[in-house]
Write a structure and sequence with these properties.
It contains 12 helices and 9 strands. It is an alpha+beta fold. The chain has 2 domains: 7-209, Metalloenzyme, LuxS/M16 peptidase-like (Cytochrome Bc1 Complex, Chain A, domain 1, 2-Layer Sandwich), CATH 3.30.830; 244-360, Metalloenzyme, LuxS/M16 peptidase-like (Cytochrome Bc1 Complex, Chain A, domain 1). It has a 6-stranded mixed beta sheet with strand order 1-2-6-3-5-4, with helices on one face. A hairpin with a 7-residue loop joins strand 8 and strand 9. Helix 9 packs across helix 12.
Length: 361
């Protein structure tokens, strides 16, 4: 295994293993990443990756749902999962003595989930309720509609939670088929960080996952989004006292040479949040000195402004989210935001802004 703070290995079955020792505390964190998300879903099965994520907390052939929970809780740990466009991820953090138990949990989750039919039906109700909750949140609803308008053919246009008709129609066999296709070592990365010895940790990961067979699946072809021919607008009117504005621009994929410059531009416009999806939910670093904060919040046109430029496999969107101040017309907010963006287009950004963005990122 190579030296350095991060160690990467690949098992014979295709599983990628990343180990990052850090001895600042006695904790370890185990992440299991799967290369499947809403961008891999076909029409009629939108939301299936997110639903499968839910089902993978419901028990395996060796571990009941209660036993899975007990593994984490008896070590005083935390666990969670999320699904997005290109990935489904599970995380557990606990004392270092929990590592073998957490590896057992994740190896079982990869290869032995049971998908009880009654549990699938019960979870359908939970997910539809979650969907209805997002539809009642005006900011989330607007983001869903703007994304669907901006991405007209690429599967990124579908909300991760899915469309209601698909959630009504999917079956237990649909869910289990999706699980068996994508949950395999050759479509996964296991990350262990914390108070570990890298060689010992790799041996333990190998014992837990090494016997799981690869799937050899072929990733489905995604329809490429054609070049947009003109401005598109979405207007939603509902009762309420707060106005929301979203401004979306097509943005490069993570592997595109333009991605990092776009990330820096987002930091200049809105402040830096980082690359992790969860980081996008926190306050941006240095936001008070960003262009749009000064143009909108300091002038009392908006109460909040955020930007999102996240890494994706294919080209997606840079999204500005603005909450109008009380009594301010959205047209005035839009005009000020567009003027600030146009100023960057005409004059670029300063060396000081780039240096600050690099420090924040």
């Amino acid at each position: 295994m190579p030296s350095g703070s991060r160690h990467i290995a690949r098992l014979d079955n295709g599983l990628t293993v990343i180990l990052h020792p850090s001895h600042a505390s006695s904790l370890i964190s185990l992440w299991a990443w799967y290369g499947v998300g809403s961008g891999d879903e076909r029409p009629g099965q939108t939301g299936i990756s997110h639903w499968v994520e839910h089902m993978n907390f419901k028990g395996t052939r060796r571990l009941s749902r209660e036993a899975m929970t007990d593994i984490v809780e008896r070590h005083g740990g935390f666990w969670n999962g999320y699904t997005w466009l290109d990935q489904t991820t599970y995380v557990a953090t606990a004392h270092r003595d929990a590592l073998d138990d957490l590896l057992l949990l994740e190896s079982e989750r990869m290869s032995a989930c049971v998908y009880d039919a009654a549990e699938c039906e019960s979870e359908r109700t939970v997910i539809i309720s979650e969907l209805q909750g997002s539809e009642n949140d005006p900011d989330q609803l607007l983001e869903t509609e703007v994304t669907a308008a901006a991405m007209q053919v690429h599967p990124y246009r579908h909300p991760t939670i899915g469309w209601r008709s698909d959630l009504d129609a999917m079956t237990r066999d649909d869910l289990f088929g999706h699980y068996t296709r994508y949950y395999a070592p050759d479509n996964a990365t296991v990350v262990v960080a914390g108070d570990i010895d890298p060689d010992e940790a790799l041996a333990r990961v190998s014992r837990a996952f090494g016997a799981i067979r690869p799937s050899g699946f072929a990733r489905p072809l995604r329809t490429a989004e054609p070049e947009q021919q003109g401005e598109r607008r979405v207007a939603i009117e509902r009762p309420g006292h707060v106005g929301y504005l979203k401004i979306a621009h097509h943005a490069p994929a993570f592997t595109d040479d333009a991605f990092v410059p776009m990330l820096v531009l987002d930091a200049v416009l809105c402040g830096a949040t980082g690359l992790n999806l969860w980081c996008s939910f926190r306050s941006a670093a240095g936001q008070r000195r960003s262009r749009l904060y000064r143009a909108l919040v300091e002038r009392s046109l908006a109460s909040a402004v955020t930007g999102a430029q996240l890494p994706t496999r294919d080209a997606f969107l840079h999204l500005l989210s603005i909450t109008a101040a009380d009594g301010v017309a959205l047209a005035d907010v839009e005009r000020a935001a567009v003027d600030a963006i146009d100023e960057v287009v005409r004059g670029g950004v300063t060396d000081e802004e780039v240096a600050r963005a690099r420090r924040q990122l």
